[in-house]
Specification:
This protein has 129 residues and is mainly β. The chain has 1 helix and 11 strands. The strands form 2 sheets. Strands 2, 4, 5, 6, 9, 10 and 11 form a 7-stranded mixed sheet that branches. It has a 4-stranded antiparallel sheet with strand order 1-3-8-7, with no helix packed on it. Strand 4 and strand 5 form a beta hairpin. It is globular, with a radius of gyration of 13 Å.
């Protein structure tokens, strides 16, 4: 049984930092790309950042480039998203997700939330002014 459990998130002032984490089980973690998606009220779910199965390639949405860093620890089946210099526009529910295909690319997974397979429970990130 696949499980994807998220932690982190919360309330932070603009310009601050937060780290999101995700621990997955029930599948061969290091065979699959992983990603972070977010959804703000009234908006569609969008890709934030993805990483390939080995961690050698990453993808970032333009809106977060230079501020967010995705990483994974395949020995611990964990995924992280370090978020720096947060802005009001980063306020959203954030979701960790697994890729659907073995050895898929980061760019492919981030191409659409419909390409993800399993999802974490979501964690709220709220940035205040």
């Amino acid at each position: 049984q696949v499980q994807v459990v998220q932690s982190g998130g919360g309330l932070v002032q603009a310009g601050g930092s937060l780290t999101l984490s995700c621990t997955a089980s029930g599948f061969t973690f290091d065979d699959y790309s992983m990603g972070w998606f977010r959804q703000a009220p009234g908006k569609e779910r969008e890709a934030v950042s993805c990483i390939n199965f080995s961690g050698s390639t990453t993808y970032y949405a333009d809106s977060v480039k230079g501020r967010f860093t995705i990483s994974r620890d395949n020995a611990k089946n964990t995924l992280h998203l370090q978020m720096n210099n947060l802005t009001l526009e980063d306020t959203a529910m954030y979701y960790c997700a697994t890729g659907r295909f073995r050895y898929g690319s980061a760019e492919y997974l981030c191409g659409s939330h419909e390409r993800a397979n399993y999802w974490g429970q979501g964690t709220q990130v709220t940035v205040s002014s």
